[in-house]
Each structure stands twice: as structure tokens, then as C-alpha cells.
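Entry:
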Amino acid sequence: MIRTLVDSNILAYAALKDQGEKHKEAVDAIANLILERRMVVSIQNLVELSSVLLEKAKPAPELGNFKRTIFGYSKCAEVLRYSDFTIINAASIKKEHKIHFYDSLLIATMQENNISNILTENTKDFKGISWIKATNPFTQ
């Protein structure tokens, strides 16, 4: 079974119904991963999703809907956590590949958990990492 980490942008498109076709495609991609029991998220993805929903979504979801979204993803996916070691590893990845720290943290978390697939709109952010297969569900 090949587990796939779902990036924050895909989670956000799935949560925000006003995103048109991207909403539908994100929901479909996530549903398939859930059915196949292959969906993985990092606690970082849930934090980033929370920021989008609470600070950028117009209107922001009611607290009950927000909780259902976060707990829903937590129940349907394996949730990866990171440690101080992960943060140090992320700093090395950032320096070596010259990428954004939060992408480096996600990569370090994936590496520690033997996850090589990521579903993301931002495939270019992961191009320099040879062992990662980044897939954009909107261009398939």
C-alpha cells in the first residue's frame, strides 16, 4: 500500500465549496485515498488548513463546521507528527535544496515516515527531491 500525503492546498480546496471545479476534484481525490486507506496528513497540514479557514476564507466557517473539518481529516487519515529532530532535518533540507522552510519540514516529516508520494497543487516545490513523487490532481 502506497500512502500519499495530502498537502494543505488540496485540503483547503476540498473544504472550501466556493472553489468550483478544484473543490470537486480535490474532494474526489481525497475520497479515493480515504477509500483505499492511503491518506496521510501531517499535523502541519492541519495547522495550515486551520489558518486558511480561520483567516482567509470569506466568510470564515462557524466553529462547529471548523471542528468537523479538522476532526474529519484526523479520523480519515493517518496524522503524522514531527519532533525537534524533524525540525533540525528540515533546516538541513532547506539549506541543501534552497526551498521554503515549511516545505522542508513537510519533506522531513515524509522522510521520517517513509512517505514518497504527495498530492499537491505546488509540484514545483518538491521537484528537487528525487525520491518524492508530487502529483497535481488538477492537471491529470
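Residues 4-83+116-121+130-135 form one domain.
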